[in-house]
Write a structure and sequence with these properties.
- With about 450 residues, this protein is an alpha/beta fold.
- It folds into 3 domains: about 150 residues, NAD(P)-binding Rossmann-like Domain (Rossmann fold), CATH 3.40.50.720; about 140 residues, no CATH class; about 90 residues, Type Iii Antifreeze Protein Isoform Hplc 12 (Alpha-Beta Complex), CATH 3.90.1210.
- It contains 17 helices and 14 strands.
- The strands form 4 sheets. Strands 3-2-1-4-5-6 form a 6-stranded parallel beta sheet, with helices on both faces. The chain has a 4-stranded mixed beta sheet with strand order 8-7-9-10.
- The chain is globular, with a radius of gyration of 22 Å.
Length: about 450
């Protein structure tokens, strides 16, 4: 029986899946627009630092005020309404919630929410790739010990990539490379919230009239978000990062099998079984033909001549040898697709991708020369960007993860383009997020894999 049919049956039986959403930003509000239209789903509660902002977000996606008129979780459970609150802990602890969605984007908050979900035995859908890249392998282990499902968020690119990887391996194909597309030029690593709009081509009038978050847009542009997402994919799919970080080769969908194959066969990969992000821009700024800016892909190799011939017979785009081919999805719809993760947990007890090993990390690298005494401002800011490296490399360098590079003061100068190390910053070992991350380094360090 399909997931949709099982949700319909739950609706008919009067026992919907009860969902609690933490964070009513873009991703969360997009899910809210679809949850109200999905049988067998009841969005019991929404927790946000600003309940007024959360209510406005729900109105914006089409909710009438009566849909969020509930005054408590109990009140919401008795009817069809949703309770909006600023208390995420109460939402996670509520006996009326089955599945918690963390859509906050804060690594520290996400870690705290997962640990609370473990305590209260609530399944977790992690939209929060920042927290997953920082400590996902340990969080997944804690969730398994608690008997709950810890899942990537469908609609976000990491979960969609994991789905393609699983498809390829399930039908007996070796995954050579997997990843996504984005807009990239090398100069973007130095982009700041002050320069981000000129790279996107937005005018001051457009920015003033729209709901634009400069730091969020900049985290996509400067490469940090791509690094975080590929770390999540590597850790979930037993894939490795490139030895010196993401290369962002310019590549359109027709060229995926030619470009993303090993060096020995004419491609750009130093090894098989890696993640990589392709750029929608040539290095001179020209647009790539049939780019994959919004999509995801997997490249695989024919194991036999027979399978190679099948690729040709059924129209797959291949490299010139006919051995390497690709499957891709040209778009992702973020929060609009999140219901797939909720349904997978509720009807199959399965995640849509989940961290397994610690193979990749995202470290903080100085955007410019930084001076002792300066405070780091984290993802999408003025001081650092996130670079994807092997977990073993991160440990060897003693590098500070990008997810913790916010608000920490530098003890030493750091040259432009150099990693920020734990020894370079003043930090509180008792901070819960720092403590959990250090625990993961100790627990997984001996098994950390990947090119050093």
């Amino acid at each position: 029986m399909s997931m949709y049919a099982k949700l319909q049956r739950r609706a008919a039986q009067g026992r919907p899946v009860r969902v609690g959403l933490v964070g009513a930003g873009k991703f969360g509000s997009m899910y809210g627009s679809q949850a109200a239209r999905t049988p067998g789903i009841h969005l019991i509660g929404v927790a946000d630092l600003s309940p007024a902002r959360a209510r406005e977000a729900l109105r914006r996606v089409g909710w009438a005020d009566e849909r969020f008129a509930a005054r408590s979780f109990e009140d919401a459970a008795r009817g069809a309404g949703t309770f909006v609150t600023d208390d995420a802990q109460a939402l996670i602890a509520s006996p009326h919630v089955d599945i918690v969605i963390d859509a906050t984007g804060s690594p520290a908050a996400g870690i705290g929410h997962v640990l609370m979900a473990c305590e209260h035995r609530k399944h977790v859908v992690m939209v929060n790739v920042e927290a997953d890249a920082l400590a996902g392998p340990l969080l997944a282990r804690r969730a398994a010990d608690a008997g709950i499902v810890y899942s990537m968020a469908s609609g976000d690119q990491p979960a969609l990539i994991a789905e393609l990887v699983d498809w390829a391996r399930t039908i007996g194909l070796e995954v050579v490379c997997a990843g996504k597309g984005t807009k990239y030029l090398p100069a973007y690593h130095e982009s700041t919230p002050r320069t981000v709009w000129e790279h996107y081509g937005f005018t001051a009038e457009q920015v003033a009239a729209g709901d634009f978050n400069a730091r969020m847009f900049n985290s996509f542009l400067d490469g940090t978000k791509s690094a975080l997402e590929m770390a999540a994919v590597a850790n979930a799919c037993e894939l490795d990062p490139p030895p010196d970080g993401l290369g962002f080769p310019p590549c359109g969908v027709d060229d995926l099998p030619r470009v993303l194959r090993p060096l020995c066969d004419g491609g750009v990969l130093s090894r098989r079984g890696t993640v990589e992000v392709v750029s929608s821009l040539e290095r001179d700024g020209r647009p790539v033909f049939r780019d994959l800016r919004w999509g995801v892909y997997v490249v695989f190799e024919a194991p036999t001549d027979y399978v190679r011939d099948c690729f040709q017979q059924y129209g797959l785009k291949t490299d010139d040898s006919g051995r390497y081919a690709a499957m891709y999805k040209p778009y992702h719809l973020i929060g609009l697709e999140l219901g797939t993760s909720v349904a997978s947990i509720a009807t199959r007890d399965e995640p849509t991708g989940s961290s397994r090993d610690w193979r990749a990390d995202v470290i903080a690298v100085a955007k410019r020369a930084l001076k002792a005494g300066e405070a780091l401002d984290g993802e999408g800011g003025f001081t650092v960007y996130g670079k994807l490296v092997a977990a073993a490399t991160s440990l060897r360098l003693g590098a500070l993860p990008i997810g913790l590079a916010h608000g920490l003061a530098l003890r030493a100068d750091v040259a432009a383009g150099q990693p920020v190390r734990w020894s370079d910053v003043r930090h509180d070992p008792a901070n819960p997020a720092i403590a959990l991350r250090r625990e993961m380094e100790a627990l997984f360090g001996a098994q950390a894999t990947g090119p050093r």
